[in-house]
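Hi support team,

I submitted a single chain yesterday and got back a structure, but I'm not sure I'm reading the token output correctly. Could someone confirm the output below corresponds to the sequence I sent? I've pasted both exactly as they appear in my results page.

Thanks,
R.
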Amino acid sequence: MYKYFNNNPNGRSVGDCAVRAIAAAFNVTWDDAFDALAQCCCDNRLATNDLKATLASEACATRAANTANTQMILDKLCALEIDGLKERNATLLADNNALKFAASQTAQNGFIQRTVADAIQYVHPAPIPAYIVANPNVTPTTAA
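Hi R., thanks for writing in. Yes, this is the structure output for that exact sequence:
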């Protein structure tokens, strides 16, 4: 059975249907229903803002953690690259030292050979002709 009910203090019947329906359903005054709806709206707005702040904080923490993890990976890659370069540098230094040693040995051997040859020449000099003559033991041939 339909029963007319309008508890709007100003007697309005348009624009506040939800307030009037809640007031009738919970058997409270229109002002109490309006205040409850307004408080609910404010509570929802605050909760939404708190949720947004929490989400923003968590997103920031997630980005910071991702950045830190990425930096750790990049640091490890750099360390591996540096280790490889150090190993290559050590190999190249060893090769360079071996080549320097070989060059030094060659120079020392040449010096020793020249010194021994000079000493032999000094102790037992070979005769040096004043001018070059033909070998008397060979008969000259004439080209035709």
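A quick pointer for reading it: The helical segments are 17-26, 30-123. Let us know if anything else looks off.

Best,
Support desk
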